[in-house]
Amino acid sequence: MTVHPVPAEWARRAYVDAAGQAEKYRRSLEEPEAFWREETARIDWIRPWTQLGRCSFDEADFGIEWFADGTLNVSANCLDRHLAEHGETTAIIWEGDDPSQQRRITYRELHEDVCRFANVLKGLGAKKGDRITLYLPMIPEAAVAMLACARIGAIHSVVFGGFSPEALAGRIQDCDSRLVITADGGMRGGKLVPLKANVDAAVAHCPSVEAVLVVRHAGNAVTMQGGRDRWWQDERAAVSPDCQPEEMGAEDPLFILYTSGSTGKPKGVLHTSGGYLTWAAMTHHYVFDYRPGDIYWCAADIGWVTGHSYVVYGPLANGATVVMFEGVPNYPDHSRFWQIVDRHQVNIFYGAPTALRALMREGDEWVKRTSRSSLRLLGSVGEPINPEAWEWYWRVVGDGRCPIVDTWWQTETGGAMITPLPGATDLKPGSASLPFFGVAPQLVDAEGTVLPDEPGVAAEGNLCITRSWPGQMRTVYGDHERFFQTYFSTYKGKYFTGDGCRRDEDGYYWITGRVDDVINVSGHRMGTAEIESALVAHAKVAEAAVVGFPHDIKGQGIYAYVTTNAEVEPDEALRRELVQWVRTEIGPIATPDAIHFAPALPKTRSGKIMRRILRKIAEGDVSSLGDTSTLADPSVVDTLIATRAG
Ligand code: PRX
């Protein structure tokens, strides 16, 4: 297997080399108090913490708290403290969907905008602890709105702009937001996303919403409802540019972010202030080896956790210059990403494998016609990166010069957990490599037996984490019991990630993908249960079962088995209707790739759907279906094999 050793220059100049990594890792686990005392010094505390943590994953005394008696304000850490010396440093370089549009915003300007935005929110009655839903395009005002919430102690819940009004309404209702922040519209690949119209449709089902603050951006016509809707640009001028940051406890909530799980509705993952900010800033510092002056670009949308931790909180806490991009990788053409790299002289680029695979398919020429000489480091996140895409990223995008940090983590973890450090870790394409400081991974088999962790011995099993880390989520909003049940009840005393993983002879971790009913489509996490419940909500559908299947570009595609009501004759028109239906119920990201009309689904005698068999058929791998003797009617399987979709 190929191993790319740490380039000599990186070993010399990085914050940590291999020996430093090993030593810091050891200290983080063996001397946590001293270790975290040092690492939390990167945060400005209003009142320094004295208690490290009180964390237990056991049912009897379950709870997670870090630095609990410390106080801080997250927005002051991301803004105010940079003003004295770096006020004129560019905080955000914005690149519009339309390549002729750019904006540059200094820390001083960002600070003023955040203060004004915070004052507008206060004027609308928002206060500490309130939930505020954000549904915005990738524009600087998205960061401004998040930081303004943090400034006054309100809890933001960002909903990705690709979600439908139905999905948005569910998320507004779940956390009972009184305020929604949106834009008239966003632009993606030259197409308008009608955000305000979507909010109007959603809010019609949300009696809790009293006010909608609208950022004028795309310039499309919108309906403004008197008494409820206001333009940010109008309000901005009428408020003071000063706003005192609220003193927040380290364990006060910072944000909620909804994410999909195996069962039920999306969960409101709740992150708090002190531990989360420490984790986001610290991982950004070490993983990207960020230095003042570097131009750093994370291509994720702020609607996902990557956008929270690595577009906004981590880099801004570190005083970084961040590129923020509204558009898509292939508009106006397949060179767009690399044109942006050249235009803004980007040094660090962090993106998702799905985009790389899509660009790889278009050929090297689109990349090669750009210089990319400013690039020094590349990153990958969101899904396993196949070695072929990794090598392409390394050879073509990075010209064989830039280390690639393949960072494994989750919405729940707040920041990177298993990741190379560029000056320390030899790289194996496809492996997220080694645990970050403070992270204690463990592999267990299906019964929970711990697999031996010894040098030279490989193992494969389910990935758990045995100790808490500061960036860990603290609860599921409004349902603490669900938090415990989802993550800590499968394997007693451990956090279960939902991922399968192999550890090789050198101790490198290779994430093999989800082992639960979650699928990862283009780096977007979807619960199969959510798509199923959308399908069965259609009047002609009796039953549905959704599984993932390997997809060249998306990583995984969505394969839906649908049983129609008895009187319905399934046809092409219904297939199209159901695809459209799911897009309306959840959003375009949940578009099924295949719909397989099935007269019946394979079930056990007790009525349980045998998903294992459905996955195999969807994958086109019917040679090893395993034991089908427990099925109530084994002939169902033959029918499905004969009628496989796609
Ligand atoms: O399956 C893993 C995959 O994405 C899941 C988490 O998704 P989400 O909460 O949306 O967060 C994505 C951004 C951090 C994980 O359970 N995943 C994420 N990063 C990687 C990955 N799988 C393999 N390699 C990665 N680098």
From TrEMBL:
<keyword id="KW-0479">Metal-binding</keyword>
<feature type="binding site">
    <location>
        <position position="538"/>
    </location>
    <ligand>
        <name>Mg(2+)</name>
    </ligand>
</feature>
<dbReference type="Pfam" id="PF13193">
    <property type="entry name" value="AMP-binding_C"/>
</dbReference>
<feature type="domain" description="Acetyl-coenzyme A synthetase N-terminal">
    <location>
        <begin position="23"/>
        <end position="78"/>
    </location>
</feature>
<keyword id="KW-0067">ATP-binding</keyword>
<dbReference type="Pfam" id="PF00501">
    <property type="entry name" value="AMP-binding"/>
</dbReference>
<feature type="binding site">
    <location>
        <position position="514"/>
    </location>
    <ligand>
        <name>ATP</name>
    </ligand>
</feature>
<feature type="binding site">
    <location>
        <position position="525"/>
    </location>
    <ligand>
        <name>ATP</name>
    </ligand>
</feature>
<protein>
    <recommendedName>
        <fullName>Acetyl-coenzyme A synthetase</fullName>
        <ecNumber>6.2.1.1</ecNumber>
    </recommendedName>
</protein>
<feature type="domain" description="AMP-dependent synthetase/ligase">
    <location>
        <begin position="80"/>
        <end position="468"/>
    </location>
</feature>
<feature type="binding site">
    <location>
        <position position="536"/>
    </location>
    <ligand>
        <name>Mg(2+)</name>
    </ligand>
</feature>
<feature type="binding site">
    <location>
        <position position="541"/>
    </location>
    <ligand>
        <name>Mg(2+)</name>
    </ligand>
</feature>
<dbReference type="InterPro" id="IPR020845">
    <property type="entry name" value="AMP-binding_CS"/>
</dbReference>
<feature type="binding site">
    <location>
        <position position="583"/>
    </location>
    <ligand>
        <name>CoA</name>
    </ligand>
</feature>
<keyword id="KW-0547">Nucleotide-binding</keyword>
<feature type="binding site">
    <location>
        <position position="330"/>
    </location>
    <ligand>
        <name>CoA</name>
    </ligand>
</feature>
<dbReference type="InterPro" id="IPR042099">
    <property type="entry name" value="ANL_N_sf"/>
</dbReference>
<feature type="binding site">
    <location>
        <begin position="188"/>
        <end position="191"/>
    </location>
    <ligand>
        <name>CoA</name>
    </ligand>
</feature>
<comment type="similarity">
    <text>Belongs to the ATP-dependent AMP-binding enzyme family.</text>
</comment>
<feature type="binding site">
    <location>
        <position position="522"/>
    </location>
    <ligand>
        <name>CoA</name>
    </ligand>
</feature>
<feature type="binding site">
    <location>
        <position position="499"/>
    </location>
    <ligand>
        <name>ATP</name>
    </ligand>
</feature>
<dbReference type="InterPro" id="IPR011904">
    <property type="entry name" value="Ac_CoA_lig"/>
</dbReference>
<dbReference type="Pfam" id="PF16177">
    <property type="entry name" value="ACAS_N"/>
</dbReference>
<feature type="modified residue" description="N6-acetyllysine">
    <location>
        <position position="608"/>
    </location>
</feature>
<feature type="binding site">
    <location>
        <begin position="382"/>
        <end position="384"/>
    </location>
    <ligand>
        <name>ATP</name>
    </ligand>
</feature>
<keyword id="KW-0436">Ligase</keyword>
<dbReference type="InterPro" id="IPR032387">
    <property type="entry name" value="ACAS_N"/>
</dbReference>
<dbReference type="InterPro" id="IPR000873">
    <property type="entry name" value="AMP-dep_synth/lig_dom"/>
</dbReference>
<comment type="function">
    <text>Catalyzes the conversion of acetate into acetyl-CoA (AcCoA), an essential intermediate at the junction of anabolic and catabolic pathways. AcsA undergoes a two-step reaction. In the first half reaction, AcsA combines acetate with ATP to form acetyl-adenylate (AcAMP) intermediate. In the second half reaction, it can then transfer the acetyl group from AcAMP to the sulfhydryl group of CoA, forming the product AcCoA.</text>
</comment>
<feature type="binding site">
    <location>
        <position position="306"/>
    </location>
    <ligand>
        <name>CoA</name>
    </ligand>
</feature>
<feature type="domain" description="AMP-binding enzyme C-terminal">
    <location>
        <begin position="530"/>
        <end position="608"/>
    </location>
</feature>
<dbReference type="GO" id="GO:0003987">
    <property type="term" value="F:acetate-CoA ligase activity"/>
</dbReference>
<keyword id="KW-0460">Magnesium</keyword>
<dbReference type="InterPro" id="IPR045851">
    <property type="entry name" value="AMP-bd_C_sf"/>
</dbReference>
<dbReference type="InterPro" id="IPR025110">
    <property type="entry name" value="AMP-bd_C"/>
</dbReference>
<keyword id="KW-0007">Acetylation</keyword>
<feature type="binding site">
    <location>
        <begin position="406"/>
        <end position="411"/>
    </location>
    <ligand>
        <name>ATP</name>
    </ligand>
</feature>
